[in-house]
TrEMBL record:
Source organism per UniProt: Haloplanus ruber
Residue ranges of domain KaiC in the record: 138-367
Region ranges (Disordered): 1-130
GO molecular function ontology, one term from the record: ATP binding
Name recorded for this polypeptide: KaiC domain-containing protein
Stretches with biased composition (Acidic residues): 15-53, 70-84
Amino acid sequence: MSGDDDWFERAVGADDADDEATETAESETDTDDSDAELSDDSAESEFDPDPDAFDGFGSDAGNAGGDPESASDEEGDSPFEEDFASAFQNAPDPEGGFGGGPGEADPEAGFGGLGEMGAPDSGPTESFDEGEFESAIERIHLGIEGLDDMILGGVPKRSLISVIGSAGTGKTTFGLQFLNRALADGKRGVYVTLEESTDRIYDTAEEKGWSFAEYAEEERLAIVHLDPVEMANSLASIRSDLPDLVKAFGADRLVLDSVSLLEMMYDHPSDRRSEVYQFTRSLKEAGVTTLVTSEASGENPYSSRYGIIEYLADAVFVLQYVRPSDFQETRLAVEIQKIRDANHSRETKPYEITNEGLSVYRQANIF
């Protein structure tokens, strides 16, 4: 068995070691707890078995030793609060001392410079950087001008992105532009198409000024054309092999155009949902940021044809036609329906399909 294959045995061995350590720790709990509760400021003090020694324990916030003569005579004092105050008074200071300062126990200063009222001192405190907290999740840009500005920080890496739109709204261009951003940065990408031929994809990219043919020659781009009939007959094999192939290629981004043809292969809704779920799950297992395009529903432009992919995706972008009441001008508009783990604009913004791809007018309104 190789070093990579014995991880389970190591994990089990670690669990056994943890169990033994737990039993040892539990057997010493009573002794440790008693010593901790009866410790005072003097390292040379000894345990006194006389019950009278506990009469005044913790009654004075400034007397951690529990001297009976200094016990409070007031009635109604809470032993819990007094014990807490005593423990708090003598807790180690982060600066290296006890109570009010390094190396000394100052009953007036409390812990770390806290006074009698518990007010914090005016010393420097560590500030919480909200930006650092949000940056824990690695994010990427789509490569679409204006739309990236609507996403605060970018889309989380390894997300499943869905682009929903009717015919002519630029779904394929969206996917190519998304892939080109990674390729232009020296990374790798895979484009899986169920609709267009490989040559057609090269031509479309070339029209936008994207050197997909050159990227393919450099072995940084793989365009896979799958016939829908062939895919229907070999879906299980494709679903199983695709993640391994993508990992072997070292792809950073993957585009599937479109998932609607996959959905159309199944007549029964339960089969459709199951297969689409399994397929998108296999894409996530590939460990790359994946974008799938989907036809919009004929009844609802904000929903995919079968209303499945938007619930499985981590991010959903809706492309649609917007027509005024007078029908004088038809515009294209984009809306971010959701992005998990990322803040984004809720506005609907106009965009155009230009010779350089999609361009979103972040500062403009629809009409």
